[in-house]
Structure formats: structure tokens, C-alpha cells
Amino acid sequence: MISQWQLRAAFAARLSDMYGREVPAYTTLVDVSRQVNEDVLRARGADAERLGSVGRVTAERHGAIRVGTPGELAQVARIFGALGMHPVGFYDLREAAASAVPVVSTAFRPVDGAELARNPFRVFTSLLTPADPRFFDADLRARLETFLAGRELFPPELLALADRAEAERALPDADAERFLHLAVSAFELSPEPVDQAWYATLERVSAVAADIGGVRSTHINHLTPRVLDIDELYRRMADRGIEMIDTIQGPPNWQGPDLLLRQTSFRALAEPRAMRTPDGTVTNGALRVRFGEVEARGIAVTPDGRALYDRLLDLVDRQAARHPGLDRAACARTVWAEHVPATEQELAAQGLAYFTYRVAADRPRDGRRPPTGVAELLRQGWIRADPLVYEDFLPRSAAGIFQSNLSGEGSRNNEQEGAAYDSAWLSGALGRDVLDPYALYERQQNRSIAHVARELALDGE
Ligand code: OOG
Ligand code: NI
């Protein structure tokens, strides 16, 4: 039998092989990431593994996919459910972007600490919003919905195997093999010719709308390795002549602990795609939709920590607006140094980030009773704090990634009221609850505190 986490690890690895064949520059990115990680490990030793073992980090990927209808999304949820991945978080990219990205998103990922440690594969999954009148008028919406209703992204055999794997939390070897084959194939780029006129109609609204609703299949949009030093990776990719977007998104590179998520990417590459022209002939065309992204992960922050992050981003935005030509990265570094605690201990004490706690193994047994309260236990050396890794995404970075890689601005009619899509609506579409990421981090933190409390009370007897 192949268990869920083994299916997840195998799926991630096979998807990576497939994507490397389709987008060779991705393989370069993975190679350079691996070299950077090895160098960081050599230079920093055990400290480099503070936010995940080198085994986890080397295998770690996130993918991105995009689908068109609630029904398709519910099917995606069954496939990832088979792999022990659950929908976490609601991201509204219609609001996060300066121009048109007509999607709402969630991320499928493992939620349990042990499962994340085994293989943390996650997939950022976006759903087109045809009911949003800012992007689609009634006529285009109707045409789009008819087109989407007539396609099948996932064969019934794949979905049946997925349901079995989810219910039984494993599959027999031969079924696992078949499931993995069908699942990876479902995300390959289809050779079927693209209807050029229909694609162009949607492209006028948004290149993302065309990528999703302009074709009769879906595909992996990008696959992202994790790197331990993203600034170094950026330099090495640029040295190889690969054209990167001009920034690293997310928090700045500063002297304090790494928080949340930093990401950068290389620009989408033109890929050959067969096109069917209005008179029915098939020609060789090219589309730029798929790109390479890389990320560095930091510590998960609490709602207070997140509010601070958003406030500081705003502050940097305002400074940049006032002083054209400002070095944004340098400005962000200064702002952070002023407002963000520079040690893990202080982040924990101020309730800005999440940690798990464990009883210190090396504290001398001097017969004293432990104090109460996490902060005091920590200060007196009774317990140690280990940071929780941020396992999720950032809407503003996501919108930036979407945009910096698409040609064409698209259009959005801001006179119209946007359609209401929210987390509850998405849960309904999925037929499963969209989980709150903060609740997941907090649960992990609280469990460790309860454990510590039990252990110390026993010790004292
Ligand atoms: C998803 C963009 C978001 C990220 O890492 O923030 C994303 C997409 O392009 O479909 O993957
Ligand atoms: Ni991504």
C-alpha cells in the first residue's frame, strides 16, 4: 500500500520532472536553488535548518493551477484530498492588484505538523470569477460559462481513484501508479490547438482569463522550489543571463529573523502552441503564460504580526510615492529595523509570530519549581521556542507575480460593483471548509504549550 504522504511526495516529484521537461529554465532554477542551499548549509551549519530540515527544503515545492468553474474546483479538491492536502486560506486577487486579475484563490496543503515535515507540497489554486461584472459583461459571461461547461479537465477514473485514496488514506501499489499517472497527465500542457479568436477575446479582459477559459484543458502554471538565500539565488540567476523580474517580493532582506515569505521569478517564456485561426487552419503560435518562481520561507506571523507587516508595506509605499527614484529595498530595510523586533525571543514575547515550545533538555536540575507563563519559562531557560514556518501565501505578492509575468494589462470596469466571492462562498463551491491559516498555526502552538505544561508538572512531583 502507498500511503497519502507517499502519494503526495511522489506526485510532487513527478510533476517536477514533467514541468522540467516542459519548461527547461525551471530545471536551471532548481539546480541553482540546490547549489545555493548546499552553500548556505555549509556556511551556517545547523542554523540553516532552523526553519526545516535540508531534506524537507530540498524536496519542497509549491505549484500553481487555475480552473474555471466551482465544479472543476470541487474536483481539484478531491484530487488533492487524496494526497492529504486541504484548502487553506482565501485570497481575493481581484482586489490585490492594480490591474485585472479576475480570480479568487485558496491553497491546498497538508495541515498537520508531522505531515508538513514529511512533505509540505502545496498548490496555489485560482478560480475564475465570470460573475464579476467589472471584468465580464453579460454576453461574455454567458459565452464563457457555456465554453467551460463543455469541457472535462479530469477523467472519471482519476476522480474515482482519488476518492478511494482519500477514504482509505492509501492505495494499493498498482492503483497508486495509475492514479499518479492520470493526475500528472491532467496538468500537462495540452497539444490541442487553441482557438485564436476566442483566446484573444478573453485576453482583452485579462491574460489570466484567457489562460483559464480560452482552452479546453488545464496545466500547471509554475512550480516553485524553496531556497535558503533568495538574494544570492537572484544574483546567480541574473549572472546566468536569465531575465528576472525586478524585485524580490515580500519582506526585505534585513538583519532580524526571516518572516513570512519572499518570492521572485523569471519572466514568462514564449512557448510554442498550435493555434486555430478563424478560417479553420492550424498555425504555429506562441503564448507566454508559464514562468519560474523561487521562494524563501520565514516564520509564520500572528494576526498582530500580519497587521504590522501590512502597515509597514503601506509606509514604504507612501515613501516611494513621495520620493520617486527611492531605493525601495533600502527604504524597507530601514523601516523594518525601526519597527520589527530583531530577535525570535522578542517576536514571541510580543505575540507577533508563532512558535512551538519544548522542555529544555539541558537545564540543570536544581530542585526549583518552574514559574508559570510561557515568557518567564523561556527567560529562565526551562523551555525552548522553535519557530513555525509560514506555509501559506501573500495576496499582494501573488498579485505581483501574476502581473509581472503577463503581457497586456487587461481591463476592469471600476464603475461596476464587484460580485461577492468570499471564503464562505468558496467553501460552498469546494464542498469542504476553507481552513483559517491562523487557527492552524495557533493550534500547533497551543498543543505544544499544553504538552510542556504537562511535562513540567510531572517533573515537579
Ligand atoms: C498564482 C500566483 C500566486 C504565489 O506564489 O504567490 C502564486 C498563479 O500565477 O496562478 O503562485
Ligand atoms: Ni507561486
How would you sum up this structure, described in words?
- With 461 residues, this protein is α+β, with helices and mostly antiparallel strands.
- It folds into two domains: 339 residues, Uncharacterised protein PF07063, DUF1338 (2,3-Dihydroxybiphenyl 1,2-Dioxygenase, domain 1, Roll), CATH 3.10.180; 94 residues, no CATH class.
- Helices cover 48% and strands 16% of the residues.
- The protein contains 19 helices and 14 strands.
- The strands form five sheets. It has a five-stranded mixed beta sheet with strand order 3-4-5-2-8. A three-stranded mixed beta sheet has the order 7-10-11.
- Helix 1 packs parallel to helix 9, helix 8 crosses helix 9 and helix 10 packs across helix 11.
- The longest helix has 23 residues.
- It is globular and about 85 Å long.
- The protein starts with a strand and ends with a helix.
- The mean pLDDT is 93.
- The structure holds 2-oxoadipic acid and nickel (II) ion.
- InterPro entries: HGLS, YdcJ_bac-like.
- Its EC number is 1.13.11.93.
- This is 2-oxoadipate dioxygenase/decarboxylase.
Fraction of residues in β-strands:
15-25%
Helix content: 40-55%
Provide the low-confidence segments as ranges.
none
Number of helices: 19
Task: Please describe the biggest sheet, giving its number of strands, its sense, and whether it closes into a barrel.
Answer: 5 strands, mixed
* DSSP strand count: 14
CATH class of the largest domain: Alpha Beta
Q: Structural class from helices and strands? A: alpha+beta
Average pLDDT, all residues: 93
For the biggest β-sheet, the strand order reads 3-4-5-2-8
- Give a list of the ligands: 2-oxoadipic acid, nickel (II) ion
* CATH fold category name of the largest domain: 2,3-Dihydroxybiphenyl 1,2-Dioxygenase, domain 1
Number of domains: 2
Distance between the termini: 45 Å
CATH superfamily of the largest domain: Uncharacterised protein PF07063, DUF1338
**Radius of gyration, CA atoms, in whole angstroms:** 23 Å
